[in-house]
Structure formats: structure tokens, C-alpha cells
């Protein structure tokens, strides 16, 4: 009688089964390509609903997706808050619900924060592999929060940079970052100092106005623009957006949610999935921007990966 109740897979268990974000690379590459293949790719994913909570400066994102290739059905619920007074509360919190796609039964409730940190960094790594210049020696990270750590981990695992630099609005957190990660990191006093001469740049801030200016960027550099996920928020200035070749995860999402894309009027060259499919070129010799907003199907394949690994061990 009755169905089996859903399992709960908390952050520690997710971390245990997803100790390296790079474990997700094959599934994410396939999901991005399937998404960009339209109906034939079998990814069903609307642009997420983002519900503002104006009284508290917060947002609730609802992110459902089904992937036919994985036969996986999930929805992520993610909250993100600006200016939280209690610094012990993370700015982003997430939960992923995983369903049995054959009958709609809820099978698992997974912590979504570790998944969000790792799948986002893995997607930036996929973009970087395709779009960075042939000789990339200097990595620059702007921001020192959760995403800065997950990006550092996978970028230093997959690529060989001679130098890693960080800049953060609050310098102490950049110093803390440099002390906590495995390898040497140069803490910079300004974004300009960090960016000058860098081959690969990652912007992972909650900025709402540009923190990265075209003037500072080395021609041919690749930028992963990960923050600024609201239509009136910015990380990159107009000149950089307009004078770079612009790649996005989802055209529809970029034109709905990205202040950097909407307000600059920059033209989108391709979705990352189109490059993975080979229907659009990567152009690594140009200055490139990958505008990442985060897609539900990334959470779907990540949650399935964790659930399958968890099931195999239980
Ligand atoms: N594209 C995607 O798939 C995803 C994107 N994101 C986005 O990535 C960004 C980083 O997320 P996360 O690391 O979890 O956030 P955290 O809260 O952990 O870190 C936020 C960082 O942004 C900095 N910051 C905040 N306000 C400003 C500002 N006005 N100017 C410059 N820096 C600022 C903070 O600096 P300080 O130490 O001074 O406070 C801190 O370094 C966010 O914009 C988030 O929405 C997150 C998940 C997925
Ligand atoms: O994809 C995601 O989870 C998010 N993108 C921006 C805020 C959270």
C-alpha cells in the first residue's frame, strides 16, 4: 500500500557523490547540445519564473526541466537575496526535486546549493575550453564567494595557468580565498589590476552595475560572465558587450534576464550548445564573452548524476 516516500539527499551526501565538478562534464555537454537542438534534442525547459520578494530584496527562481536523453524530470527552487544582514546565511539557497518521469512520483529531494555551485562552474569550464585563446596563462576571478571557489577548483583542475589572480569588493574575503585554496593566488587591489593581461576572466559577483570595463581587457581574452542575472543588473560595460563575440547558454533566457545583454543591445552570436553541436564556430582568436544565466536542464542532469550514484551505494 502507498508509494515509497522520497529520499532526502543533503549537502554532505551531494558533495560526497559529486566531489569534483568535472564529473558532470559529459552530461552537461550533452545537455547543452540537446537544449540547442530544439525539439529534436528532447529538452523541455521554459525560461525560469523569477518571483521578486521586494520587501526583503530577494528572488525565488522556479526552474523545471525534462531531458528525454536522460529520461530525467526535475525542478529546482532557488532563492537569491541581495544585501543579507546575516552574513552566515548564503545569498543563494537551492533545492532540487527529482521525479519519476514515467508516473510523476517524487523520488528525491536534493540539496541544490552544491549542485548549483558545481554545475555552473563546469559549464563555464566547457565554455572556456572552447573559447579561450590558444596560449592562456593568466586566470582572473572577480568575486570571492561560493562561485569563485567552485570556478577556481574546476579551472585549476582542467587548465594549466601560470598565474591566478583575484579581486573582490571586500579585500579581506579575497585574502581569505587566497589562503584557503590549494595553489598560489595573487590578491589584487583593483579589478583593473586583476584583469590587465588576463587571458581568461570569470565574473562571479552580485554587482548590479559594471565591474569590468572593455578598456582593461586584453584582445582575444575569454570572459565567463556568471553574475548579473536580472534584466537591470550588470557586470560588464556596454563596450565590452558590443565589441566581443557573445555566446549564451540560452538565447531566450539572455533576452529575458540578462541586463548585460538587454541593456547593451549586444548581438548574440551563438548558444554554447550550438558550438558543441558544431553548427556554430567557437572563434577562440577573438575576444569572447560567455554570458551564463544557468539552465534548469543543467540541474536535471546533475541531480540525476547524484541520485544514481547515491542509489548505487544504497
Ligand atoms: N549563471 C549561473 O548559472 C549562476 C549564476 N550565479 C550568480 O553568480 C554570482 C555569484 O554567486 P555566489 O558566489 O553564489 O554569491 P556569493 O554571495 O557567495 O558571493 C557574491 C560575491 O559578489 C560580491 N559582490 C556583491 N555585491 C557586489 C557589488 N555591488 N560589486 C562587486 N562585487 C559585489 C561579493 O563581494 P563582498 O565579499 O564584498 O560582499 C562576493 O564576492 C551571483 O550573481 C549569482 O546570482 C549563481 C548561481 C548560478
Ligand atoms: O541558475 C541558477 O541557479 C541561478 N542563476 C542566477 C541565480 C541562480
UniProtKB/TrEMBL annotation:
Record-level Gene Ontology MF annotations: pyrroline-2-carboxylate reductase activity; thiomorpholine-carboxylate dehydrogenase activity; thyroid hormone binding
Database matches in InterPro entries: NAD(P)-bd_dom_sf, ODC_Mu_crystall, ODC_N
Cellular component GO terms, alphabetical: cytoplasm
Repeat recorded as keyword: no
GO biological process: thyroid hormone metabolic process
Top-level taxon of origin: Eukaryota
Main location: cytoplasm
UniProt xrefs under Pfam families: OCD_Mu_crystall
Keywords: Cytoplasm, NAD, NADP, Oxidoreductase
Enzyme Commission number(s): 1.5.1.1, 1.5.1.25
Residues spanning the membrane: none
Subcellular localization(s) per the UniProt record: Cytoplasm
Annotated catalysed reactions: L-pipecolate + NADP(+) = Delta(1)-piperideine-2-carboxylate + NADPH + H(+); (3R)-1,4-thiomorpholine-3-carboxylate + NAD(+) = 3,4-dehydrothiomorpholine-3-carboxylate + NADH + 2 H(+); L-proline + NAD(+) = 1-pyrroline-2-carboxylate + NADH + H(+); Delta(2)-thiazoline-2-carboxylate + NADPH + 2 H(+) = L-thiazolidine-2-carboxylate + NADP(+)
Family affiliation: Belongs to the ornithine cyclodeaminase/mu-crystallin family.
Complex and partners: Homodimer. Binds the thyroid hormone triiodothyronine (T3); T3 binding inhibits enzymatic activity.
Name of the protein described by the UniProt record: Ketimine reductase mu-crystallin
Organism this protein belongs to: Chloebia gouldiae (Gouldian finch)
Lineage of the species this protein comes from: Eukaryota, Metazoa, Chordata, Craniata, Vertebrata
Amino acid at each position: 500500500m502507498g508509494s515509497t516516500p522520497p529520499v532526502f539527499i543533503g549537502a554532505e551526501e551531494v558533495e560526497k557523490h559529486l566531489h569534483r565538478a568535472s564529473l558532470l562534464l559529459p552530461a552537461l555537454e550533452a545537455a547543452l547540445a540537446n537544449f540547442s537542438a530544439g525539439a529534436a534534442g528532447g529538452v523541455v525547459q521554459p525560461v525560469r519564473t523569477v518571483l521578486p520578494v521586494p520587501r526583503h530584496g530577494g528572488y525565488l527562481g522556479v526552474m523545471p526541466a525534462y531531458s528525454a536523453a536522460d529520461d530525467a524530470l526535475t525542478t529546482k527552487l532557488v532563492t537569491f537575496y541581495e544585501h543579507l544582514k546575516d552574513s552566515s546565511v548564503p545569498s543563494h539557497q537551492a533545492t532540487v526535486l527529482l521525479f519519476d518521469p514515467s508516473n510523476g512520483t517524487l523520488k528525491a529531494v536534493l540539496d541544490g546549493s552544491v549542485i548549483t555551485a558545481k554545475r555552473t562552474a563546469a559549464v563555464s569550464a566547457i565554455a572556456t575550453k572552447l573559447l579561450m585563446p590558444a596560449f592562456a596563462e593568466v586566470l582572473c576571478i572577480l568575486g570571492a564567494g561560493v562561485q569563485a571557489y567552485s570556478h577556481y577548483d574546476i579551472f585549476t583542475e582542467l587548465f594549466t595557468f601560470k598565474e591566478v589572480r583575484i579581486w573582490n569588493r571586500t579585500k579581506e574575503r579575497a585574502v581569505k580565498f587566497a589562503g584557503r585554496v590549494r595553489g598560489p593566488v595573487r590578491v589584487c587591489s583593483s579589478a583593473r589590476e586583476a584583469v590587465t593581461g588576463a587571458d581568461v576572466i570569470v565574473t562571479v559577483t552580485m554587482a548590479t552595475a559594471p565591474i569590468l570595463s572593455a578598456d582593461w581587457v586584453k584582445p582575444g581574452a575569454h570572459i565567463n560572465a556568471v553574475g548579473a542575472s536580472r534584466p537591470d543588473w550588470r557586470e560588464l560595460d556596454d563596450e565590452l558587450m558590443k565589441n566581443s563575440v557573445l555566446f549564451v547558454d540560452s538565447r531566450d533566457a539572455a533576452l529575458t534576464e540578462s541586463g548585460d545583454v538587454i541593456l547593451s543591445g549586444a548581438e548574440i552570436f551563438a548558444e554554447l550548445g550550438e558550438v558543441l553541436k558544431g553548427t556554430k564556430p567557437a572563434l577562440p582568436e577573438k575576444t569572447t564573452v560567455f554570458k551564463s544565466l544557468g539552465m534548469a536542464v543543467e540541474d536535471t542532469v546533475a541531480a540525476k548524476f547524484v541520485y544514481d550514484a547515491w542509489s548505487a551505494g544504497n
